[in-house]
UniProtKB/TrEMBL annotation:
InterPro entries: LysM_dom_sf, Ribosomal_bS16_CS. GO terms for cellular component: ribosome. GO terms for biological process: translation. PROSITE patterns: RIBOSOMAL_S16 (PS00732). The chain crosses the membrane at residues 25-44. One of its GO terms (molecular function) is structural constituent of ribosome. The keyword NAD does not apply. Keywords: Membrane, Transmembrane, Transmembrane helix. This is LysM peptidoglycan-binding domain-containing protein.
Amino acid sequence: MNASTQAPAQAAPATRLRLTRRGRIVFTAMAALPLAAGALALAVNGGVAAAGERGPGQSFEYLTIAAGQSLWQVAEDVAPTDDPRDVIAAIVDLNRLTSEAVQPGQRIALPAGLEQHAGTIDG
């Protein structure tokens, strides 16, 4: 055979990419994963911005918990005219306590602006 009588080589047919239902789910999940991770990071770090509201040079009064003393008693002593529940919530928030339970000898910071009863606050 000579070169002029040979059949031309056939070009490979162009194939179209087809995804199965499972493939579409995998690609969708891969695209959504970074978005979900970003949303989670923003949600977790949202509390950091609230903590920044306190001034960096702001000083606090500190109190050492006595044996048998509760946050309710502390709230009544340091702010006798305020609602103790609000004062306790402010103390828990300021000290980042996981509960309202305190231990004897524990030193806690008191929120600024509370009326303070003489003799209950450490220097």
